[in-house]
Task: structure prediction
Amino acid sequence: MKTKQKNKSIYHWVILVCCILTLMFAYSTRFGLAQLFTAAILKETGFATSAYFLSTTIASAICVFTSPIAGKLLRGKYMRPVFLICCVGTMGFYACFGFCHKLWHFYLVGAFQGIFAMGACTIPVTVLITNWFEKNRGLMISIAMTGISIGGTILSPAISWAIGSFGWRKAYFILGAVSLCVLIPIAGFIVRRTPEEVGLLPYGCGETTVSGTAKKTTAYPASNWNVSLKEARKTPVLWLFVAAGFLIYFSSCILGHMSNYLQSVGFQAAYIAAFISIYSVVAIFGKLVLGHVFDRFGPKGGMLFGGGTFVLFLAAFLLVSGRLAVLYLAAVLYGFGTCIATVAIPIMTTSIFGAQHYSELYGFISAFTMTGAAIGSPAIGLIFDLTGSYRPALIVLIVLTLLSIAAVFICTDMSRKKSEKENQKS
Result:
């Protein structure tokens, strides 16, 4: 009974809510909602669009180098101060965009923001979920990731109102201040790196029935391999997995081109807006469904579902021209398929490599996923510039997604063999 009380408490759910809020105010504000400022900034400054967006590329490029560092810093006893500093640095510098007047100002602020960003978003959130939840870990990560979609839904009209009422500069200040008011208490006072720090156990740890026997579970367990980053670097499993992560994030960059593609095949703004609304709503539930699939069927089942729906979305996009029904079908498929970029990598890291060294492994892997995110969008744009059509790019992305699915299958089999060897040793 004592164990049961320790592995289920209100604090577990407080941590989950904190993770949702962190992604709402430290992630969605800087990615999905950043586009709300673009039109006003370009209108006032007269910057070329490509030159302005270079600030985002600079931030992403710096994240490639800071991801492994953040992963190492967030694994130890200084997790809370590192998390706090990164939250203040990320959203503090984000607010500083309101002071920018010249292009190099945006580049400089973007660079400083990139230094702190990885320590304030997905890495600390997934570290907390991995440490605090043993049962239904995939589902809990998925619930936390809904903060990205919820943030976009709730904060979008508020930011649009602030820009229209006060101008984009003051809107940056307001958003930065509100975000810090939410993030500072979370990082500085509420979260704890592990449940053991407050006398608890991970959620679902060591559950027993009334008779004292272990509860039967259908959840897919974390790997028993529990390999360190240093050891994993010597195996092909890690390098094949980071290649899969790179391809997943590279392919996800179609997001930035979807509106332009739909316009090029004849859809009006109202239909494009409906498409975005549909997939945004579906994505909230899609994350939950994908997390459950990963918990129930493991990396193979989760990747087959998530990657498969993404491939079907790309195929539907190829055939969307002049077909309204296909457009809405593509929106639903994308709502499920897009979740592999945010949900799959952290869940599969634990399933394949184990939870013991999760933080440093996920930080290292994030360097490669961020590289894919940094070069994917310009690469897709280059294909469009060279061919005059997005169709060749869509075909390439179908192939790359299928390769990522195959890579995950191979990694899972290799990890299982490693786990079996560890079990034999023990």
Q: What stands out?
A: The chain has a mean pLDDT of 89.
